[in-house]
Design goal:
Helix 10 links the parallel strand 5 and strand 6. The protein has 2 domains: 314 residues, Alkaline Phosphatase, subunit A (3-Layer(aba) Sandwich); 103 residues, no CATH class. It has a 10-stranded mixed β-sheet, sandwiched between helices. With 458 residues, it is an alpha/beta fold. It is globular.
Length: 458
Amino acid sequence: MKKYCLLFIFVCFSCGWNGWAQESAPSVKNVIWVIADGMGPEIMGFFMEGVRYGDLDGFPDKVSHMETMIQKGTQGLYFNKTYDTIVTDSAASATQMATGQYSRPDYIGVNFEGQKVKTLMELAQEKGKSIGVVSDAYVTDATPAGFTAHANSRRLKEQIARQQIELGVDVISGGGLKYFNRDLQKQAKEKGYTLATTRQELLKVKKGKLLGLFSDTGMPMAIEMYRYPNTPSLAEQTRKAIELLEQNKEGFVLMVEAGKVDWAAHANDPGSLLAEMKTLDETLGYVLAYADKHPDTLVYLNADHDTGLGTFVYQYLDRQKVAQKTKQGEVLYNGNTAYHSFKIYKQLEKQKRSLYYLEQELYAQPSSMLTRDYLERRFGEALGEEVDFSTFTDLSNVRGVLKQLNAQRGISWATGNHSAAPLIGVAYGPQAELFSGVYHNTDIFPRMKQALGWSEKE
């Protein structure tokens, strides 16, 4: 008996414990890749800190699903430069993540030389797996397109839609109905797709391919979803996608995009941003619960890029603002320094409308309409509380009013555009350790292949 034990130990040391452990690690059958468009580290912190300390509704334990995933999973930090630019757009970023090759802004599924390259979805399909893309923006937008199509410009929406149907993506769910004309819808039905355009129609689909198109272009902002009861949430779309995809015994690869995190950040709208992050977290709750019940499922959460670089900052106030803050009962330090209170999160939860939509409406008004009384009424309706613009300047500049409103709440945005901030990737489930360390977004593709047990040459 001792001979066999010694032989076993000798073999383990000869092969290397790490190699033996790697070979015995659980294999990945299913991948659920969640991409929050525009979600830089500061946005993740803004949300998770609000859950912990801001008394947000829906979190009795004061722990978000995102925080749970980070605590139990594996984290890495990665960069997303394109072939020749420091900052990226969603098209190049999605392409680089989906193919492992460097690309350029505006490109979809092609490398920096304009050559068509195989995506993770196409490779998974060749392996016999079912594939799907879900978005709460629209399915022909840059992120879903980067995984399912090939084009020299993200603006070629109709071409992208046609390619998605031709590829036979098993689940296509989100907005973008206008890009699927009647002929393409007919082709889709001939290929076995069920077309769903409402929440009720989505819930009725039990098998086969799904073409879910719930708005002409992008789906409504999360903060305004209460106005659209027939439109499914991101979590509902994701649940249905998994229900259909998991019917394949070979497994599936699903990409889920929380697309409007980016939209809210572009608008420098913290109330909308909070609502979008809540939507993302609800979806993560379902996905993580599914992974817990299916230990062969890997969940990966990341972003394509950061948008806005927004965060809370302290402020030095003038006499008028000091008097106003003191009258409101706010605590100031050194007589004139506002460090701000977590009460701001409850204010943000009251918001009822996207400030981006409001901004567009106000820009359509003649400048003579933009009086203080009018703006206070319109913003008050959107924010769900009374506002005071008595200290604001140049009320005819709507973007300037938004900036002053953010400053009043202690929130500073560096930009309304994308930034080159490094991003955080979180892996949960088997082979999660592959996604630790510092890497580039082109490194995600080969790590996904390794997790799925595919060779490097494939």
